[in-house]
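2024-03-11 09:14:02 DEBUG pipeline.ingest accepted 1 chain
2024-03-11 09:14:02 DEBUG pipeline.ingest length=107
2024-03-11 09:14:03 DEBUG pipeline.predict start
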Amino acid sequence: MGFIISCNKIEIEPSPQPKPVVDIFSTKETKISDGQEVMFKSDLATTYIIKLIDVSTNQVISKEKIISKIGENNLKIYSKSIQIKYLYLVLEDENKKEINKTTLILN
């Protein structure tokens, strides 16, 4: 019976540190990339409408109904096909009352 012992350097890569979770509506503007996940906090479990609006023309680019939970709610923003660089991200209730708004800068 024979044993082979070898000394190989094992490289351990540090695990990527998660980005700090910040409510997207707590900042005036945020730079985002296609497919980036953002978070917003809600005090209610209810239906909201999320809109992306062109800053220069005030035209709605995208609109989606979402059902929120109490606490942190995550969304992925897909912007690859959007040619506009500056957008408003608007959160509305079902009565179309604006709850929150921030500016997105697309990378």
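2024-03-11 09:14:41 DEBUG pipeline.report The two ends are 61 Å apart (CA to CA).
2024-03-11 09:14:41 DEBUG pipeline.predict end
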